[in-house]
Amino acid sequence: MIHESLRINKILDLKKWKRLQDSLATVTKLAILTVDYKGIPVTSHSSCQSFCQNVRKDPELLPYCQKCDSRGGLEAVRLNAPYVYLCHFNIVDIAIPITVDDKYLGAVMAGQVKLSDPENGHDLEQIVTSKNKSLHLLKENDLKAHYDNIPTMTYEEVVKISNMLFLLCNYIIEEALNKNLLVEMFEKASGNDETLNISTILPGYTIKNIESVKKEMTNAIADAYLKNTSNDTSICTNPIFKPAFDYIYNHKSENISLTHMAELCHISSSYFSRLFAKETGENFTSYLAKLKVKWAKQLLEVTDMPISQISDELGFNEPGYFIKTFKKIEAITPAIYRKYYRET
């Protein structure tokens, strides 16, 4: 059975996982690496900072980096939660444990950022300290320009991103595991002469149950990803529109009407329409369509969700209208966009 040989590289399609990892690194501004339960990388780094690249090339310093990865992962497993810590160069790193049924499969290692508000991260543990401080100081001086270019984040941003990655990674692992269970189930059924009977293969489950679970898991992935897209308040600073913008970003799967938005803002529909166009430079319908297409592009890039399901997730009345809207804004269909994105 699948539970007897749980391995992260057997559960995941690592090529697809790497594409997602690259996208997450771009969105979060973090360097990201995935390792197995032994701490051995199963992917290459995504967006590794130049300072860390140079440090890892140094045979005297590489063991410190590897020790940080190993200890960070173990601490995350012990906590069963993201573990934020400082590496041997006082750079912020995060270990995201990946577990299934309390079995540790590996970890997503993220970070390579500095705190813009170090006073808020004073409790962070430096998980590995240098036994050769002069070597570290020399390396840091030699790579000062690279060190100064390491991106900065607030402590709150680091914590929020670590929690998002924890939810997202484990959702995806569970979705992949569920898919593998289905494959195993049908392989077992096809190996004998009996009529397919789900109750004898997976007691307590029906085809409808399993299909429902699969859809819920896919929905969770989309929800976890899109809920963490930031509200771009720079588009409109007029406080009168705040209830509308908050509602749009918190109800991405709804088919939102101008009338409802006007009611939330306690103004008439006609006044809402005129003022919105004045503030944003475009009418409400066009703005909302462009925003939903932006979210659709993100889902096309990082998931294998069918076009019809993305349409449902973003509140379009039916897939045909979604495709038409997407093509009007991007000049290509969603399917071609996904194909082009993954080939580049």
Present the secondary structure layout.
Blueprint: H1 8-11, H2 14-28, E1 31-36, H3 50-57, H4 62-79, E2 83-86, E3 92-100, E4 103-115, H5 133-142, H6 144-148, E5 152-153, H7 155-190, H8 198-201, H9 207-227, H10 242-250, H11 258-264, H12 269-280, H13 284-302, H14 307-313, H15 319-330, H16 334-343
Parallel strand pairs: 4-5
Antiparallel strand pairs: 1-4, 2-3, 3-4
Pfam family, one: PocR
Domain HTH araC/xylS-type: 242-340
InterPro entries: Homeodomain-like_sf, HTH_AraC, HTH_AraC-typ_CS, PocR_dom
Short description:
57% of the residues lie in helices and 10% in strands.
Please, could you describe this protein's structure?
It comes from Paenibacillus wynnii. This is Chemotaxis protein CheY. There is one protein chain. This protein is α+β, with helices and mostly antiparallel strands. It has helices at 8-11, 14-28, 50-57, 62-79, 133-142, 144-148, 155-190, 198-201, 207-227, 242-250, 258-264, 269-280, 284-302, 307-313, 319-330, 334-343, and strands at 31-36, 83-86, 92-100, 103-115, 152-153. Strands 1, 2, 3, 4 and 5 form a five-stranded mixed β-sheet that branches. A hairpin with a 5-residue loop joins strand 2 and strand 3. The model is unreliable at 185-190 and 192-205 (pLDDT under 50).
Total individual domains: 2
Let me know the largest β-sheet.
5 strands, mixed
CA-atom Rg in angstroms: 24 Å
The number of distinct β-strands equals 5
List the total number of helices: 16
Q: Could you say which structural class the secondary elements and strand pairing correspond to?
A: alpha+beta
Low-pLDDT runs of 5+ residues are 185-190, 192-205
**Overall 3D form:** globular
Pfam families: HTH_18, PocR
Domain HTH araC/xylS-type: 242-340
Keywords: DNA-binding, Transcription, Transcription regulation
Protein name: Chemotaxis protein CheY
